[in-house]
Design brief:
Helix content is about 35%, strand content about 25%. It has about 450 residues and is α/β, with parallel strands linked by helices. It folds into three domains: about 5-125, Methylthiotransferase, N-terminal domain (Rossmann fold, 3-Layer(aba) Sandwich); about 145-370, tm_1862 like domain (pyruvate-formate lyase- activating enzyme), CATH 3.80.30; about 375-435, Nucleic acid-binding proteins (OB fold (Dihydrolipoamide Acetyltransferase, E2P)), CATH 2.40.50. Helix 8 (about 210-220) runs parallel beside helix 9 (about 240-245) and helix 12 runs parallel beside helix 13 (about 350-370). The longest helix has 24 residues, at about 350-370. The protein is globular, with a radius of gyration of 22 Å. The model has no long low-confidence stretch (mean pLDDT about 95). It binds 5'-deoxyadenosine and iron/sulfur cluster (SF4). 5'-deoxyadenosine (5AD) binds near residues 162 and 334.
């Protein structure tokens, strides 16, 4: 009988892409995907370690698995991803429900680890690699029109708050040929959108090609295929890359460009390697070269020593750039990082209040930007029924904004031209102008 596995994924898009790689590896070895948690012979959690609350959530899940294991003592439970890498044997020692701990560069060892676990042996593999890119693994994607394609792994930036360089190791890139052939296959299978992924895609290099070349090669595969990418680091965002985005219709005019803090003093402590002025200048060049570009960002509130003045500079930067959206976080100290030794001196209620101010301001800006789109036309790619109602469809604009339209004779993956009729800070609502028959993105 074939054994079945079920993977629950938390955290960033890299983790979702990694889960498909793991499913690809295990499927190749004869495992099938279980329909749900309860029917699986082995359960894995692909974990995130970026902030403490991400880890607390996983501990909560592990308690639930204890109940499942009482019912089925043969059940195998494994931890994958960044928490596995960060906590290693501590997870095995402290959480008796855990049988397998496997870090992000060791997924090829999973079939052996699972075999051992079914024999009753616990196992751990957490070696980081300088070369592993899983370039030859075909990720198992089960549904959808949109695919994550990881193009590089790891990060060499060592921002002082960030655990990623320790959990995902050094930067390394797949070959351009490997990525292009994977995307060609996806396009042939009917996928309509790919997102090229890496912790810092701008520093992609396979020795011969940089990220601008990779993006251009992927965009050339099929004009109907939308191409997105994330995450960009302001330091490595080259003019060549900006030109590549500007030059290709099907490379989405949307850039996720974390700035973290508006204060030069804090940026320096964070080792972000750019100043506020450098960042603003980059944004000016991007807006000039890519008209209508949408920008999003990441912000941390309450980094060690952050003053009210530093915080006001973050708010002012938000006002100045006017991002379409932002991911906003309270600083969370992480062991091993340089910031860990700086203490955590901003009281939690101050962090919370600053975060609220950042969120409120960004919500107002997103609302204003979306309101200004009312009356305009947008081309959307249909993703499926809306969450709210079966009588509505959800699609996404080039700028990655969600648009709700009335249901009509369309299929998932169709492009539709719509007129925006109303908007909130998070969602646009549209009416149908026409279905796009010219097969362009
Ligand atoms: N505390 C809070 N936020 C963090 N991030 C990374 N590390 C931390 C931390 N220790 C945020 C950054 C990064 C995003 C992925 O997570 O904003 O860009
Ligand atoms: Fe972490 Fe900085 Fe690397 Fe992003 S660029 S993964 S924040 S170290």
């Amino acid at each position: 009988m074939r054994r079945s596995i079920y993977i629950e994924t938390y955290g960033c898009q890299m983790n979702f892409a990694d889960t498909e790689i793991v499913n690809g590896i295990l499927n190749e070895q004869g495992y099938e995907l279980a329909a749900d948690l309860e029917s699986a012979d082995a359960i894995f959690v692909n974990t995130c370690a970026i902030r403490d609350n991400a880890e607390q959530r996983i501990y909560g899940r592990l308690s639930n698995f204890e109940h499942l294991k009482k019912r089925n003592p043969h059940l195998v439970v494994g931890i994958l991803g960044c928490m596995a890498e960060r906590l290693r044997e501590n997870l095995l020692e402290q959480k008796s429900v855990v049988d397998i701990v496997c870090g992000p560069d060791e997924y090829r060892k999973l079939p052996a680890l699972i075999d051992e676990a079914f024999q009753g042996e616990k196992g751990i593999r957490t070696q980081l690699s300088r070369v592993e890119t899983y370039d030859d693994i075909v990720p198992l994607r089960t549904e959808g029109i949109s695919a994550w394609v990881s193009v590089m792994r790891g990060c060499d930036k060592f921002c002082t708050f960030c655990v990623v360089p320790f959990t995902r190791g050094r930067e390394r890139s797949r070959t351009l040929e490997g990525v292009v052939s994977e995307v060609r296959d996806l396009a042939a299978r009917g996928f309509r959108e790919v997102t090229l992924l890496g912790q810092n895609v701008n520093s992609y290099s396979d020795g011969e090609h940089d990220f601008a070349s990779l993006l251009t090669a992927v965009a050339a595969i099929d004009p109907r295929l939308r191409v997105r990418f994330t995450t960009s680091h302001p330091q490595d965002m080259s003019d060549r890359l900006i030109e590549a985005i500007a030059a290709h219709e099907n490379i989405c005019s949307y850039i996720h460009l974390p700035f973290q803090s508006g204060s030069d003093r804090v940026l320096e402590l964070m080792n972000r390697t750019y100043t506020r002025e450098h960042y603003l200048d980059l944004v000016r060049r991007i807006k000039e070269r890519i008209p209508g570009v949408a920008l999003s960002t990441d912000i941390i509130a309450g980094f060690p020593t952050e003053t009210e003045e530093d915080h006001r500079e973050t708010l002012a930067l938000l006002e100045e750039v006017r991002f379409d959206g932002a991911y906003m976080f309270k600083y969370s100290p992480r062991e091993k990082t340089r910031a860990w030794k700086m203490g955590d001196d901003v009281p939690d209620e101050v962090k919370g209040r600053r975060l609220e101010e950042i969120i409120d301001l960004q919500r107002r800006i997103s609302y204003e930007i979306n309101q200004a789109m009312i009356g305009g036309n947008e081309r959307i790619l249909l993703e499926g029924p809306s969450k709210r109602s079966d009588a509505e469809w959800l699609g996404r604009t080039d700028a990655n904004k969600s648009v709700i339209i009335p249901k009509a004779e369309f299929a998932v993956g169709d492009y539709v031209d719509v007129r925006i009729v109303s908007a909130t800070s998070a969602t646009l609502f549209g009416t149908i102008v026409s279905q796009v028959v010219t097969e362009a993105a």
